[in-house]
């Protein structure tokens, strides 16, 4: 795999064009596991540091606090790019899902609405992850991603989402979706970092005009990307933070990148996009081939192998 296959993104480029024509800042702030009492300030710090892209989700249970940070910043709405996601139990009621998120965020529309997982969960009251009696997730097997996508398409016409996309979608799921989609997804948000580059999937998405977005780009505290000797070596040579190296690598291969932090000095340093040389890009491209350096942190790999590769085996708890 060579970096030459990626679109030629000039180092330092800070935005990309979606297939809708909209401009999206490459670098955003992630908000998963950002507690209410910290995320308002984190959003304010990020926006003050020049970040204009926020990654949110109904499932993160903190959209009200994120919305407060947006409001406190006084930045005009049209200068922000806000993403949120439809949770698994909302596949049969997508509009209700976005209405809740919009109300919580205090917004009239989102710039990008994603389907959080390609598989639907059965609704059981307000349970976020309804379980079957055997302890496995209560998947709504009769609901297809394609059917949920149709409801997403309707929201664009209603103006509630400027662009729509998916998350955790593998190539087989995407191929299946493209067979019936009237609107080609604008983005697919997937786990990606130097220990899980997803080269093939990223290149496939780019070939279809679908902008990939990397979640857990720093390894989510579970893959030791920021302690890797190659990342540390490159960071040291540039007088940069290891996180800045992991972030710049995504940006320069044309992938949106949404590191999460609630720590002021990290948010500020993460917001500064550094430049990597072709040689450095290539070294990071190859890292995952080293023993022990291929790590997926988000399990099960929803959509990556799930339906098409029979994961998980029947009866296995997930
Ligand atoms: P990240 O890879 O962004 O890592 C976050 C962790 O890294 C936190 O512990 C944070 O700590 C720490 N960190 C941040 N900056 C630095 C730094 N400069 N140096 C050292 N450590 C640092 O993990 P996430 O899993 O949170 O992924 C990012 C975002 O992607 C999420 O917040 C969410 O918005 C999205 N996401 C989407 C998913 C999906 O299914 N679509 C799944 C998972 C994530 P601290 O906050 O204490 O500073």
Overview of this protein structure:
With 318 residues, the chain is α/β, with parallel strands linked by helices. It has one domain (15-289): TIM Barrel (Alpha-Beta Barrel), CATH 3.20.20. The protein is 33% helix and 12% strand. It has ten helices and ten strands. The strands form two sheets. Strands 3-4-5-6-7-8-9-10 form an eight-stranded parallel β-sheet. Strand 4 (53-55), helix 2 (63-73) and strand 5 form a beta-alpha-beta unit. Helix 1 (36-48) packs parallel to helix 2 (63-73). It binds NADPH dihydro-nicotinamide-adenine-dinucleotide phosphate (NDP). NADPH dihydro-nicotinamide-adenine-dinucleotide phosphate binds next to helix 9. The site of NADPH dihydro-nicotinamide-adenine-dinucleotide phosphate has 29 residues, from helix 9.
């Amino acid at each position: 795999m060579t970096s030459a296959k990626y679109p030629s993104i000039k180092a330092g480029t800070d935005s990309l064009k979606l297939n809708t024509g909209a401009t999206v800042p490459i670098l955003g702030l992630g908000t998963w596991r950002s507690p209410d009492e910290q995320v308002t300030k984190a959003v304010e710090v990020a926006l003050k540091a020049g970040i204009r892209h926020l990654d949110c989700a109904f499932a993160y249970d903190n959209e009200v606090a994120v919305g407060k940070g947006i409001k406190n910043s006084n930045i005009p709405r049209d200068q922000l790019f806000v993403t949120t996601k439809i949770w698994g139990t909302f596949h049969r009621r997508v509009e209700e899902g976005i209405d809740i998120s919009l109300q919580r965020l205090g917004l009239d529309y989102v710039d990008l609405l994603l389907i959080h997982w390609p598989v639907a969960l059965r609704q059981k009251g307000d349970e976020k992850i309804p379980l079957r009696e055997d302890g496995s997730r209560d998947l709504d097997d009769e609901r297809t991603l394609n059917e949920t996508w149709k409801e997403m398409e309707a929201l664009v016409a209603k103006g509630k989402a400027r662009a729509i996309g998916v998350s955790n979608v593998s190539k087989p799921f995407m191929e299946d979706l493209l067979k019936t989609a009237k609107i080609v997804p604008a983005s697919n948000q997937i786990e990606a970092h130097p220990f899980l580059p997803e080269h093939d999937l990223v290149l496939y998405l780019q070939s279809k005009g679908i902008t990939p977005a990397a979640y857990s780009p720093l390894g989510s505290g579970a893959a030791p990307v920021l302690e890797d000797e190659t990342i540390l070596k490159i960071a040291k040579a540039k007088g940069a933070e290891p996180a800045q190296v992991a972030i710049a690598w995504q940006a320069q291969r044309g992938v949106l990148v949404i590191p999460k932090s609630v720590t002021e000095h990290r948010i500020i340093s993460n917001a500064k996009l550094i430049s990597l040389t072709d040689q450095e890009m290539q070294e990071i491209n190859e890292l995952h081939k080293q023993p022990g350096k291929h790590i997926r942190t988000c399990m099960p790999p929803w959509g990556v192998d799930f339906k098409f590769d029979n994961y998980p085996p029947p009866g296995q708890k997930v």
